[in-house]
C-alpha cells in the first residue's frame, strides 16, 4: 500500500545560518550527539576476513575499525598517524601492536 508523499506540504522555516556556520554550535552538536552515542559507519559484512579494515572520521576523531584474527570487529581511536599501521593476523617479524591506538566505547570519543 503506497500512501505517496507524506512529508512537508507547505513551506517551513529552516534553521538559522549560524546552526551551519558557527564553530561553537558545531562543537556543541559533536559533544551532545556524535561523541556521545554509537554511530553507524557501515555494515559488518563489508569487512571480509581477518585484517579487513576501514577508517572513518567522526568530528575530529579518526576511527579505525578492523576485523581481528577471531573475525570479531574492533574499533580504535587513532591517536597518531602511525597508529593506522595495522599488523596482519599472521604476525610478521617486528610487527607489534601500536600503542598509539586504543580500543573505544561511545563515551571515549571527545
What does this structure look like?
This protein is an alpha+beta fold. The chain has a domain at 42-108. It is 15% helix and 20% strand. The protein is built from 2 helices and 4 strands. The protein has helices spanning 18-21, 23-34, and strands spanning 53-58, 61-67, 73-78, 101-103. A 4-stranded antiparallel sheet has the order 1-2-3-4, with no helix packed on it. It is flat and about 55 Å long. The protein starts with 17 loop residues before the first helix and ends in a 7-residue tail after the last strand. Mean pLDDT is 75; it is low at 83-100.
Q: Which class do the helix and strand fractions yield?
A: alpha+beta
Evaluate the radius of gyration.
19 Å
Mean pLDDT value: 75
The gross shape turns out to be flat
User: N- to C-terminal separation?
Assistant: 44 Å
Largest sheet: 4 strands, antiparallel
Amino acid at each position: 500500500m503506497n500512501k505517496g508523499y507524506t512529508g512537508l506540504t507547505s513551506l517551513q522555516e529552516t534553521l538559522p545560518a549560524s546552526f551551519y556556520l558557527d564553530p561553537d554550535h558545531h562543537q556543541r552538536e559533536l559533544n551532545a550527539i556524535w561523541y556521545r552515542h554509537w554511530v553507524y559507519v557501515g555494515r559488518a559484512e563489508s569487512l571480509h576476513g581477518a585484517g579487513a579494515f576501514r577508517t572513518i572520521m567522526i568530528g575530529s576523531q579518526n576511527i579505525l575499525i578492523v576485523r581481528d584474527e577471531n573475525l570479531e570487529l574492533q574499533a580504535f581511536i587513532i591517536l597518531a598517524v602511525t597508529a593506522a599501521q595495522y599488523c596482519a593476523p599472521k604476525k610478521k617479524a617486528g610487527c607489534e601492536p601500536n600503542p598509539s591506538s586504543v580500543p573505544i566505547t561511545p563515551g571515549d570519543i571527545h
